[in-house]
Amino acid sequence: MARLDDRLVPYLQELKRRGGYRTMTPGAPESAARITRGGRRLVNFSSNDYLDLAHHPELIQRAVEWTERWGAGSGASRLVTGTLDIYQAVEEKLARLKGTEAALIFNSGYQANAAVLPALLDKGMIGGEPRIFTDRLIHASLHHGCRGTRQIRFRHNDLDHLDSLLKKHSGPRSRPFIITESVFSMDGDRADLAALCDLADRHGAFLYVDEAHATGVLGPKGMGLSGHVPGRIDLVMGTFSKALGCFGAYIACSAPMRDYLVNRSAGFIYSTALPPGVMGAMDAALDLVPGMDAERARLHAHADTLRRALERAGISAGGSSTQIVPAVIGSADAALAASRLLEEHGILGVAIRPPTVAEGTSRLRFAMTSAHTDEDIQALLALIPEIAP
Ligand SMILES: *Cc1c(COP(=O)(O)O)cnc(C)c1O
Question: Are strands 347-348 and 40-44 parallel, antiparallel or unpaired?
Fold first, then answer.
């Protein structure tokens, strides 16, 4: 018994009573589409490894090679001796692919959002109290980055609402910030980046876009939706942990912005650089992703098929137009029951419940990958009528 356990135990009991207790289930994936959990081999519709790159031989090989050549760890933070020469090559490759002046690698997507925003939202730098406009559905890591500042939240993807809030909170004070995602992680819908850029221009607002779920999957050469509005977004953040099949994150931005963050972002400065093996996998992913149009076409076709089946069954897929297809069930209990039913039939579709999504919108969040076969999709479709609320 440690100190505080006497408080933690009743808290956890209360969570269990309310159906909000979370546990982790160990599993062994073979590919993006196959996982063994609890001794059973399941078709996995809950992986973010959209292009099946986590098991790609080139990522594995380069991770091994770079580990053998540079070691298992990087030895220090970036500003000390952790910037191995491989970093520069990967960051340059990334900036080229993103079409930006510079790029900077972070250790994870959560860390990037949590570390970049506090450095940016410095009162001295932006000329006063931050005015931050955030989409209602942004990721927890973006909220973390905004901690300690007041967020002015606009209705999800409602740019008229954002415009009116920008007008309402205007003034010759600090520079306003707009923070959103290009593809929303639990809804699979997209932000209208061109319209957001116009709005940001009109209001002189800094635009920060998280491309965690678009990187690798959407946009020119799969390098994200920001590629459709070149040079117009002030800072684009994305991850290597989803479609790019490995780990870590990046920001793509101007050169002064990169230099500023190297000097001011505590989460960057005081954390050990990524291990060389991870850098190797990143490097291989960046070589492969631009040429994976066929894989992208495949997963988007799967998503279209699933959305049509959900519609036929009267199940809402929200505003999904990407590889992420939610089946909105309603109550947390009903979503859990639907997930269990699928699992009995060999299909893994994890239930997403509050607080990750709003009360009453618990869902199965299906993620399509290029590794799913047409038979996998048909097996899922056959069960869709049975999970209709
Ligand atoms: C997954 C995710 C992150 C966090 O990225 P990690 O590399 O997994 O830490 C950040 N933002 C969004 C929108 C995400 O979906």
Answer: parallel
